[in-house]
Amino acid sequence: IQYGGDATIDMFVRYYGQSSFRIGHSGEVAGTGMPYRYEFSVPLAIPEKSDIDIRTRVRSNNARVTAAFDIILMPE
Q1: CB–CB of 25/10 below 8 Å?
Q2: What is the DSSP string of 22-67?
Q3: Contact 53, 25 (CB under 8 A)
Q4: CA distances from 45 to 42, 52, 73 (A)
Q5: Nearest alpha carbon to residue 54 among 6, 14, 4
Q6: Whole-angstrom Cα distance, residue 36 to residue 67?
Q7: What pLDDT digit, counting tens, does each position of 19-60 carry?
Q8: Angle at Cα 67 formed by Cα 61 and Cα 71, nearest 5°?
Q9: What contacts 18, CB < 8 A, 6 or more positions away?
Q10: Which positions ≥6 away from 36 have C-beta within 8 Å?
Q11: Could you tell me which residues come within 8 angstroms of residue 46 by beta carbon, excluding any fewer than 6 positions away?
Q12: How many CB atoms lie within 10 A of CB 6?
């Protein structure tokens, strides 16, 4: 979050073969202007061909949100 905005950040996953997204993680940033970082103690296992969607809700004008994440591909 930049410019001191407040936001709720949700990560949704639509697992391959399913028709709806399910929440995978949710977080909030409150006016600090600092990045939101969360390290999973146990990584989320998301099967191939699944969709990942990052959605945010900002509560102030001029807030800018950028999302990035790392993926580790595990061979079967």
Answers
A1: yes
A2: EEEEEEEEES--PPP----SS-----TT-EEEEEEEESSTT-B---
A3: no
A4: 9, 12, 10
A5: 14
A6: 10
A7: 999 999 998 887 666 677 788 878 888 888 999 999 988 877
A8: 170
A9: none
A10: 1, 9, 27, 28, 29
A11: 13, 15, 24, 52
A12: 15
Indicate the pTM of the whole model: 0.75
**13 Cβ contact partners less than 8 Å away, ≥ 6 residues apart:** 21, 22, 24, 44, 46, 50, 51, 52, 53
Give the residue from 61, 62, 5 showing the smallest Cα distance to 31. 5
- Structure-token pair, residue 72: 């580790």
